Amino acid sequence: MDISDVTPWTEKYRPKKLSEIVGQAEIVKSLSAYVKSKNMPHLLFAGPPGCGKTTATLCLARELYGDSTGECLLELNASDERGIEVVRGKIKDFARSVPMADVPFKLIFLDEADSLTSDAQSALRRTMELYVSATRFILGANYSSKIIEPIQSRCSVFRFTMLSGEEMARMATRIAEKEGLKIDEKAVSALLYVSEGDMRKLINALQGSALHGPHITEEGIYRFASRARPKEIVEMMQLALDGKFAEARKHLHTLMVSYGLSGEDVLIQMYRELDNVKMDERAKAVLLDRIGEYNFRVVEGANEIIQLEACLAQLGMIGKEKKA
């Protein structure tokens, strides 16, 4: 690998054109039509992290403005600048200035707009109305339900979906080829598991593992991403179900030390592996309820180790009821 290139791979391999975006064909088609007509409404991009909302915005701006993109696009992260002062100051000042391009409007991109306070959203609604002739807004949000209804009604809503495993696997293989890496088939599966449809997570995990050598293995992926192998989580849960609480508890401590897992990480992986544990559907429903309860306790600040061991104890009780 060329150590002189210090660009993060998430930026290095970010699509530069709308046509290069994967997994969002219908959205790309609509955005390309906006570029062709040089006209568009306010937009709301909603969807999970790492599915292409920011990339689509940058590609749209680049194709609209070309070399003038820097002067015609204002990009803000609403999670950092989320108060009403930002809407009344920076956003309003940019919105009412005249665009210096052959496109009759400028773009303001508010990433993580669902973090804006309700007062800021109310002020933003008025700004969107007043300066619509000179400025279009693109709001990026993980949860569109947190955007107030008056703003949603003023926007065309595009719902981005999680990327499929095939698309993400192709990206991992393409990056490995360009970077001169050898990647195992199991390592690709591990990348898909730890990334959960988030392309940023996949690329970061791949780059982190590549720092340890050109051969990308399953072990390296799980260790860098601080995730246990799925079979290790299943083994721990099965031990508890079989009444071997001490062994399951020891297994839990080993996993947390070896991979640096937090309590929430373990519970989320337990939830994901629920279908692979040998137990009937009723018992799975009971266990899912318990996992939800313990996850809430951990998030609220309870001791992680005590809560996880209590969860394993619940598994043991479920297993005992099954045998009775």
Task: Give structural attributes.
324 residues, alpha/beta, Rossmann fold, Helicase, Ruva Protein, domain 3, Zinc Finger, Delta Prime, domain 3, 3 domains, five-stranded parallel sheet, two-stranded parallel sheet, 16 helices, 7 strands, 57% helix
Describe, in plain words, how this protein is organized in 3D:
The longest helix is centred in the C-terminal third of the chain and has 20 residues, at 304-323. The strands form 2 sheets. The protein has a 5-stranded parallel β-sheet with strand order 2-3-4-1-5, sandwiched between helices. Strands 6-7 form a two-stranded parallel ribbon. α5 runs parallel beside α6 (118-130). It folds into 3 domains: 9-159, Rossmann fold (3-Layer(aba) Sandwich), CATH 3.40.50; 165-224, Orthogonal Bundle (Helicase, Ruva Protein, domain 3); 230-323, Zinc Finger, Delta Prime, domain 3. It has 16 helices and 7 strands. β3, α6 (118-130) and β4 form a beta-alpha-beta unit. It is of the alpha/beta class. The chain is globular.
State the gist of this model.
By secondary structure, the protein is of the alpha/beta class. It contains 16 helices and seven strands.
Q: Portion of residues in helices?
A: 55-70%
**Structural classification:** alpha/beta
CATH homologous superfamily heading of the largest domain: P-loop containing nucleotide triphosphate hydrolases
Low-confidence stretches: none
Q: Give the total of domains.
A: 3
Largest sheet: 5 strands, parallel
Q: Tell me which CATH architecture of the largest domain applies here.
A: 3-Layer(aba) Sandwich
Say how many strands there are: 7
Shape: globular
Strand content: 5-15%
Radius of gyration: 24 Å
> Would you list the SSEs in sequence order as H and E?
HHEHHEHEHEHEHEHHEHHHHHH
Q: Number of helical runs?
A: 16
**Looking across the biggest beta sheet, what order are the strands in?**
2-3-4-1-5
Measured distance between first and last alpha carbons: 59 Å
User: Which CATH C-level class of the largest domain is it?
Assistant: Alpha Beta
Integer average pLDDT: 86
The CATH topology of the largest domain turns out to be Rossmann fold
